[in-house]
Write a structure and sequence with these properties.
about 110 residues, alpha+beta, Arc Repressor Mutant, subunit A, about 15% strand
């Protein structure tokens, strides 16, 4: 069965809606421990997000540019892996976002 244009548009809308959730998810894990691209792709997949490296890495770079993440390269055998950690600004942003997410959750799910 082929997808119609409206089916593709729904997927695009979903991607736009979920992009903020993905950013928060990334930030949450970067506060807890160092993260890297492939590990985050796998983590996000466990939560039903299918995201490619071509979509995730710009998100990581954008969060770093905003000052929410800091990266450093770590040797992993013969290769280098870029690892990200949340900055103080990232931790503060996550605390503020949690409040907003909680408020939205109560409104969407609990009807309050």
């Amino acid at each position: 069965m082929s997808k119609t244009k409206s089916d593709r548009n729904v997927f695009v809308v979903d991607r736009e809606l979920y992009s903020g959730l993905i950013r928060l998810h990334v930030l949450h894990h970067a506060v807890e421990e160092p993260i890297f691209g492939l590990g985050m792709i796998e983590e996000l997949a466990r939560h039903g997000y299918r995201i490619s490296p071509g979509s995730l890495y710009p998100i990581l770079h954008g969060l770093e540019k905003k000052g929410y993440l800091r990266s450093k390269e770590i040797r992993n055998g013969k290769s280098l892996r870029k690892v990200y950690r949340a900055t103080a600004a990232g931790r503060i942003a996550l605390v503020l976002a949690k409040s907003k997410v909680g408020e939205l959750f109560r409104e969407l799910v609990e009807g309050k």
